[in-house]
Amino acid sequence: ETGVTQSPTHLIKTRGQQVTLRCSSQSGHNTVSWYQQALGQGPQFIFQYYREEENGRGNFPPRFSGLQFPNYSSELNVNALELDDSALYLCASSKQGLALYEQYFGPGTRLTVT
Amino acid sequence: QKEVEQNSGPLSVPEGAIASLNCTYSDRVSQSFFWYRQYSGKSPELIMSIYSNGDKEDGRFTAQLNKASQYVSLLIRDSQPSDSATYLCAVSPHLLNTGNQFYFGTGTSLTVIP
Asked: How far is the C-alpha of B72 from the C-alpha of B64, rounded, in Å?
């Protein structure tokens, strides 16, 4: 167990709806990164939050947004859901937003869009 | 677009044998390298990190890095059926850059046959 928690575990939404996923980082970690993992693929970087600010973003549209709170927990929000958004959403925490630091994943949220 | 290439497998080895997993990456400035293990339906679990050329050993696992050849590998000695999983290679560009994102390969599926 990494100490990174995510909620909910599973979620089913309808196309066009909005969803919020939550993540609590491991104790001592102040950076949270979000990844999307489609079936049979490696995780794809969405964005990272450090000191409550977005600290890097992958190739995802603006309808993917996030927040980080003072306790270092984080949310991922996705608006106008599309069928292709169906995936495992992974949160990873690390000590700082530096490449030097290892990232530890939470259990993930399985999102299904119908 | 930074690319991380892995042989998708499946790779099958008998119990007790050495499993060799390979990964190549395209970005020459990559500095941090990681191996994750992912069981079916679960999130990735960090196994090894390596930052310098050469070998790094941790129990039955050895990571090997050759930056000149842009190649990183993972050896699993005395393979056990519990090692059966997908192994993900991850690469990060700069040690001291912020907003580090990990670039993942698609993973190699390993089956250890009892």
From this structure: 5
Helix%, strand%, coil% for chain B, nearest 5: 5, 55, 45
Mean pLDDT, all residues of chain B:
91
- CA–CA dist B18, B13 (Å, integer): 7
Q: What pLDDT is attached to residue B28?
A: 77
- Whether residues B94 and A106 touch (CB distance < 8 A) is answered with no
Tell me, yes or no, if A88 comes closer than 8 A to chain B by beta carbon. yes
pLDDT digits (tens, 9 = 90+) for B20-74: 999 999 987 778 899 999 999 999 999 999 999 999 999 999 999 999 999 999 9
Nearest chain B Cα distance for residue A69, angstroms: 17
- B93, B100, B104 member nearest A43 (Cβ): B104
Q: How far is A109 from chain B (nearest CA, A)?
A: 10
